Every structure is written in structure tokens, then in C-alpha cells.
Amino acid sequence: MTRPPIATARPSRRKVLAGAAALVPVLAAPARARAAAPATTPPAKGARPMEKATFAVADTPLVGDLYKPAETGPRPAVAIIGPMTYQKEQAPTQYARRLADMGFVALAYDSRYRGESGGEPRAWENPFHKVEDLKAAVAYLKSRPDVDPDQVSILAICQGSSIAFRAAGELEGVRALATVAGHYRDREGDIEWLGEDGYAARKAQGARARAKYEATGEVDYVKAVDRTDMNVGMPGEFVWVWYQPWADRGQWENRYAVMSDADLLAYDSIGAAKTLTAPWLMIHGDNCFLPNAARRHMAAVPETTRTKTIWDDTAHLAYYDQPETVDRATREIADWFRNA
């Protein structure tokens, strides 16, 4: 398929792939989906009704919040995955509510080991398991009578983008993919994120913690974010400023299983980018995390894959919850999914 034109105010794909300074780093089993009887939560004033959704991966229950449009009959649908350590009430819900207003059945769900979903140990960040969780979310949506199974797409925010690449590549029938402020994973990006010494130290620390867990069942934990301590899951004040209020309100657990690094740093998404066939919308920019990794991923996608790049100066975290930014991004995403 030919690639869609990019608006003249935005750089072309080749210009996006040109060099520019990157931001300073701051920051398994087959799935079985089953629809459950929804429990409808009354909406707050001005909010859209939400239904609880449950499905399973390897007998582990996953829980999501399902937002539905006013229109009846089979509708297009979107499975939404958020950033590293996310819970569904954060950025995914911002997009789910808006997409429902635009006619989509939108599912924001908790991956295993966090939020309302099951799985042990808690706060285990396992990207390989997240791929299976996302695939199960897509299968769940396709199983619903109010969803058109030929129009199920994937939306990913931040590090969820690296998960979405593999899931979209391994699934048949994903209508389209959209990634927002993506944290794209390759070794160059990991070194830029953590530094050579930090990368090696975290990989070794994760391996030791994994061996301890397998031998004793004991889990070593650190904080997920901290203002000054760099020995956390997501180092940097920039990240702490956004996440800590969620922890203060008791709406997100500031905890990270150290053994996560054994899985996290064994994972990449650049390989999946090389075989991606689903139409892909990338929303990114030089003020988003690791812009050079985003460029490398766009360069890796086959020329036969339909893509569109929106590249501007929007700040990374504005895509998480700033109303004007999320509104603008959601309009682009909805248009992409409708016309893929």
C-alpha cells in the first residue's frame, strides 16, 4: 500500500529519520479470551458509562474498563496499553473515553501483576507477558457481539508502544496501530536511557533477583519512581513528578520487582518493526522520549507498510493527560483507525 501524505506543516518520513539530538534519559502462555457479564458503573456528571470487562491469559484474570459509544450495532474497537508500570486509570482511560465519544468500543485494561488484574509476583514488569496480555485484549474485543471483529485496532502510549509492535505483528487481523510518545526498544535506546554502566548493572541485578525468586520465592523490590534515587524502575525527576501524585492518592503502586530487569532488558521491539504489516500511525517529536529510537523504528518498517508520522514539539508527558494534547492526538488516532 502507498504511504499517506503528511501534512505540509509536519516533516516527511525521511526528514523525521534525519539525525537530531536525543532527549537526555530520565525516565508466555497462549491467551484465551472470554467475555464476561458486564458490571456497569454509573458515570460521573458529563462522563461516559463504563463497564467492567474480564478475560484471561493462562488462567490469570485480566480486568479492564470498557467504554462504549452511544451508537448500537457492531462498532470499531480499540485495545489500549499504557506506559511502563501503568494502570488503566491513567493515560489509557484518557484516550478510551474520547475514543468512545468518537464511536469506538474502547478497552483500557490492567496488564498482569498490576491494578485489578491478577498474577504474581505483583509489580513484575514483564514485556513478554504484556504482549500476550495485549493479544488477549484484542481477542476479547473480537469476541464481543457489539464489536466489528474486522475493525479492532491497537493504541499504545509510551513503552506500551514496544509491546504493541510485537502484538500487532503476531496477530492476524489487527486493523491498524497507533503509538503515542512511544518508548521504542532497541539496545541503542536502552544505552541512551540507562547508560552503558547502568544497563549492565541493571541487567545483572535483575538476573540475581530472578535467581533468588526461583530458588526461594522471595521478591526483591525497589520503588518504581523516586525524585533523586536512580536505583528505581523508572529513574528521573521528570517521571517522578507525574507518577508520585497517583501513589499519594493510593491509585498507583510505587513498587517495582527488581527481577523485572531480567525480562525488560532482554526485550526489544526493533525486530518486530522490521516485519510490521499493520498500518501504523506514529505520534512523536523531539520533546518526546528517545526520538532517535523512534526514527530507527520508522526506518525499520517495510516500505510496503502504510505509515503516517506526526512529529512536533509537544512535551512527552502532555500526551498522558493534558486535555488539549490528548484531544488533538485522539482525533488523529480515530481518523487513522477509520481509514486504515
Structure description:
This protein is α/β, with parallel strands linked by helices. The protein has a single domain, classed as Alpha/Beta hydrolase fold, catalytic domain (Rossmann fold, 3-Layer(aba) Sandwich). The protein is 37% helix and 19% strand. It has 12 helices and 12 strands. The strands form 2 sheets. Strands 1, 2, 3, 4, 5, 6, 7, 8, 11 and 12 form a 10-stranded mixed sheet that branches. A two-stranded antiparallel ribbon has the order 9-10. Helix 5 (187-194) crosses helix 6. The radius of gyration is 19 Å and the shape is globular. The protein starts with 12 loop residues before the first helix and ends with a helix. Residues 1-46 have low confidence and may be disordered.
CATH level-four homologous superfamily name: Alpha/Beta hydrolase fold, catalytic domain
CATH architecture: 3-Layer(aba) Sandwich
Shape: globular
Return the average pLDDT rounded to an integer: 89
CATH topology descriptor: Rossmann fold
Percent helix, as a range, is 25-40%
Radius of gyration: 19 Å
Ranges where pLDDT stays below 50 over 5 or more residues in a row are 1-46
When the domains are counted, the total is 1
In short:
This protein is α/β, with parallel strands linked by helices. The protein has twelve helices and twelve strands.
